[in-house]
């Protein structure tokens, strides 16, 4: 029994030894090189540059008051659509005491003058009826009386205007009612009821009561580097990607290129603007950040290969074309437009050729 066990162990040892030798032999043999090839394709190639910026309304206005005072009422909310002439807010005027005193003094003088001219007119009217005075003297007193009435009315209006910003004659036509100057959407109302507002003047831009914009006419406003701006022309197509809207692109047409660059972050940047073609079912909000792909050059349906298979020798480009199984020859080619991934082939190879992929 022991002898059988010894023989079995010996046989097992011999088999393991032979297996190890076979494994080491197979591992030491050189592996057969697998050569990968690809064929040229007919495709479209576009050379693009990217501009970063945002989508903004073409027409946006800031509504400012014509008089200084306190906001007593606000009639609109952000996001609300309004028409030109709609009332946005009402202002309560805080009158200047000096102006009030002057206006009240003027009103008192007007009252006194009216009483005096009225007395004179009534006396002259009686004398004229008795034919004691001439018609000219009568008309003179009548004109003086009418002028004093006009002055009294003007003084009353002046005092009311100073106190309330409106007169009994102007009714709804008053500077205390702030109205929209365009049709559009209210973007922002930066003031509240009770806020003090200042009219625009030489020393102050005035308080903005509301910002209103036409959201149906949007533009892309962005910047491009000086290395690319020379390649841009008005009318070029843009493909717009908005960060807040997934899986949708918008078409745009370049309509403005700044004649002067601005230094930003160590590089010269040029402003550009493009008209955005809106999609009815998608609402774009003002100041969405966006990127624009600008098509500088385009080739449709051209022979191309991946740039990764392109090789170079003494500033000449070539590829290795398969002649027969696992045999290749060097072929110099003439290339054209590249999009960074694929490159146009002008001459040297055909669509039937198989190109070796470099290691």
Give the topology.
Blueprint lengths: L1 H27 L8 E2 L2 E17 L2 E4 L5 E6 L6 E2 L4 E6 L4 H33 L5 H30 L12 E3 L4 E5 L7 E2 L12 E4 L4 E8 H4 L7 E6 L6 E9 L4 E3 L2 E10 L11 E19 L4 E3 L2 E9 L2 E6 L1 E5 L3 E6 L7 E2 L3
Antiparallel strand pairs: 1-22, 2-11, 2-16, 3-10, 4-6, 4-9, 5-8, 6-7, 8-10, 11-15, 12-13, 12-16, 13-15, 14-15, 16-21, 17-18, 18-19, 20-21
Helix pairs in contact: 2-3
Word description of this protein:
- It is a single chain.
- 17% of the residues are buried.
- A hairpin with a 3-residue loop joins β20 (334-338) and β21.
- This protein has 359 residues and is α+β, with helices and mostly antiparallel strands.
- α2 (97-129) runs antiparallel to α3 (135-164).
- The model has no long low-confidence stretch (mean pLDDT 85).
- The chain has four domains: 37-45 and 300-356, conserved putative lor/sdh protein from methanococcus maripaludis s2 fold (Beta Barrel), CATH 2.40.420; 50-57 and 216-298, Beta Barrel (Elongation Factor Tu (Ef-tu), domain 3), CATH 2.40.30.170; 60-93 and 176-213, Beta Barrel (OB fold (Dihydrolipoamide Acetyltransferase, E2P)), CATH 2.40.50; 97-164, Helix Hairpins (Orthogonal Bundle).
- The protein is built from four helices and 22 strands.
- It is elongated and about 165 Å long.
- 26% of the residues lie in helices and 38% in strands.
- It has helices at 2-28, 97-129, 135-164, 226-229, and strands at residues 37-38, 41-57, 60-63, 69-74, 81-82, 87-92, 177-179, 184-188, 196-197, 210-213, 218-225, 237-242, 249-257, 262-264, 267-276, 288-306, 311-313, 316-324, 327-332, 334-338, 342-347, 355-356.
- The chain has a six-stranded antiparallel β-barrel. It has a four-stranded antiparallel sheet with strand order 3-10-8-5, with no helix packed on it.
